[in-house]
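S.,

As promised, the zinc ion run. Input:
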Amino acid sequence: MMSTKGYAAHSATDYLAPFDFERREPNKHDVQFEILYCGVCHSDIHQVRNEWGNSKYPIVPGHEIVGRVTKAGSRVTRFKVGDLAAVGCLVDSCRECSNCKKGLEQYCKNGAVGTYNDYEKDGKTVTYGGYSKQIVVHEDFVLQISDKLPLEGVAPLLCAGITTYSPLRHWKVGQGHKLGVVGLGGLGHMAVKFGAAFGAEVTMLSTSPNKEVDARRLGAHKFALTKDPEQLKGLKGYFDFIIDTVSAPHDYNAYLKLLDTNGIMICVGVPPTPMEIVGFNLLGNRLSIAGSGIGGIPETQEMLDYCAENNITSDVEVIDMAYINEAYERMMKADVKYRFVIDLATL
Ligand code: NAP
Ligand code: ZN
Ligand code: ZN
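Predicted complex:
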């Protein structure tokens, strides 16, 4: 085992604080890399605070990880020492079920292994994430990244990027479609960028009036302040798709009314409490509510390659490790532009 430094929370009410722990020595299929940057996802806050009820303490969050390879096992073929490498939300899966065989590891029928707050395949070793100096991951779950893009802007692609890219590709959102994006945070700003890049007309649906200028700069063609009922009324029946990225409990029915006949509401946000849907809002317009979880390994690589070709990165505010608790407080107030990314050199 080798010792590494990180930041962890020890209970649902604790602040994150320095934490020393051990990682396995890389075996023949593993890649070990020094973490350079790690994005801060709202899922980190949900799990640190046990809002989903499944937290295993101490918890070292972080699943938007980029770094440089320091060791590669003897059977590793795609990475060598000195290469850039990245890891997203998954570090293992069964590789045998029908979903794994299709590259949909996130829906592994035997349970994929999350990058943190999960158990390795041995059923007892807890996984620790990217708020740390180094990580060891099976080569199959390590992604290749371009050296042409700023690394700090690439890190959030590993979760915020793929979580929005995947459903927009699945439902073939593009030219001729009207897409509404609810919530301009980490996921939301990537949904705006991808939606616009795929050719859809994008409308930002936000609770924050001060985000309008940025929303348009990110690629939104229209902006509506969702706290203003008049602005929502004007969008009744307007959208083909809405992607909802909101992290807090909110009224989904208000957005269902904005969908055109046969419209699809894609829910990627995971608030701590269940959603309440009025049935008439669905049947009155033959609407569908859908969900989508991150993305599989092949699609994550496809998204990273697409971003490299099209010069797409996340808009980030780089922070020191010690700023993390303040960053969480700011995210709770929707004060994020549009992803905090930890510079691990400060740990
Ligand atoms: P984030 O950066 O904190 O952004 C969330 C945004 O939602 C805020 O910036 C805000 O945008 C809006 N919002 C916050 N509170 C609100 C409220 N009470 N009412 C209305 N809008 C509100 O969060 P994130 O990292 O993008 O994550 C968003 C959600 O997606 C989280 O629940 C996270 O766990 C989930 N997630 C899911 C997956 C998946 O696989 N499906 C993957 C990653 C994350 P405005 O200021 O524009 O209103
Ligand atoms: Zn995430
Ligand atoms: Zn599987």
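The radius of gyration is 20 Å. The chain has a mean pLDDT of 98.

- D.
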